[in-house]
User: What shape does this take?
Amino acid sequence: MWRYDGGVQTLSEIIERNNCRDLSDLDIDWLHVLVSDWQILADLASADLILWLPDENEQFVAVAHCRPSTAATVHVEDILGLYLPASRCQELRRVMDTGVSFSPAAPRWAGSYSVDETIVPVTHNGRIIGVVSCESNIGAASSFSSFDHWFTDSAEILMKMIATGEYPYQATPTSAFNGAPRVVDGVVRIDEEGVILGISPNARSCFRRIGIRGQMVGDRLVQAVTERVENGVSTVDEALPLVLMGRAAWRTELELAGATISLRALPLHVNGKRQGAVVLCRDVSEVRRIEREIMSKEATIREIHHRVKNNLATVSALIRLQARRSDNPLIKQALAEAERRVSTISTVHEALSATLETELDYTALARKIASNAAILASSNHLIEVRVEGDFGVVDADCASTLSTVLAELVANSVEHGYSNHGGTIQVLVERRGPYVLVTVRDEGISINPDRIGKGLGTQIVSSLVKAELQGTISWTPRETGGTDAVFSALVDRNARRAAGRA
Assistant: This one.
């Protein structure tokens, strides 16, 4: 019977809770690397892998579990955090004490099916820190039953490398690309000279995509690929020969004949002696095509924002030119306000052209918008604008409207609150879930309640806040002088989309 010991799920949590003995931080890091990459071994062995660690009472607890994608699992239920029955602990202790892998002479029964098991020591820096049990359902069919010999041989070598501390690799292959190859995507086994000993049907299909025909078994993989590269236009990575020869635990991609193949090599060693390699491959042509389309669209969107910004700058220049040609003060003032509004929208598009995120951190942009609005609205007086608080992340779709409202309120404070002198404008920001509450406060001339909603600026702001930002706005005269313009805005992207659907 299993004994359950809590509901924790992560490897580190289980280790900490069960006081697994004598494990340093480096040992735990090693175990993390092992379990992050052992799906390959589970698929090659067509078996469940369970990492067992002894606790302070010499009992063994399951800290990690991997099911194969090439065969039926032995353990349908989650076994993380479960203890091994005392009757079976002796076998695991023997493996940890001797450092020698162990396979029981006879399969054991688990319910209605029999299980074949191999227990392998996990070695790090010359010290055994745990064991891995490799358990396969004898009666279950494997996806690669016709390749049992070289599949099983590859799995056995990897298990020996775990026992000697040679696997996982010191340099785990990383890549900026998506689409890491797996065993089910395609697998090739090569010997020390790079000759193909076995190849799965999916792997053969991958190489046919780049023009390599035939059965390929008995051919040198690097030579077959090199001939195709020399005869066709290709993008070749410098690491390609090392991967195709299985000399480096690395990953690369080959683009040829309109197809893109992702390749990863797993060198096989036993006590430092090369035993060939396993090469995983995956056809990622469609993935790369979609990525290129996305990159093209992203570049187009950036260019659109950039051109809109330039066009708005042109409009702004034309408005200034028109204002200079007029002798009517009212016309000059109206054109100056129009130019300020155009400039505000241009600033937002400039920020959007630098990112393709659907959301942006708005606080820095708000400071720029408020400062520019104060400068453009003030002619003879020094106005200081302080933005206090954090807008947080704001939906990019509402950034332009939010900026227009903020700039309009700051400009109104300058033009009406500080029409005869300089001063300070405070922009107080408070994020409340999906909403942001903004107070634009000045200490100048208080607003006349009878004038609220009569001017063009307040009409524009009221309309934008209610219709576009789905919020409310109010103006309140302050007892000590000045005005508080307070508005709320729905700025969370998910909340705005949900409100739009409603």
In short: The first strand starts at residue 3 and ends at 4. Confidence is low (pLDDT under 50) at residues 1-6. The chain has four domains: 3-164, 187-283, 286-356, 358-502.
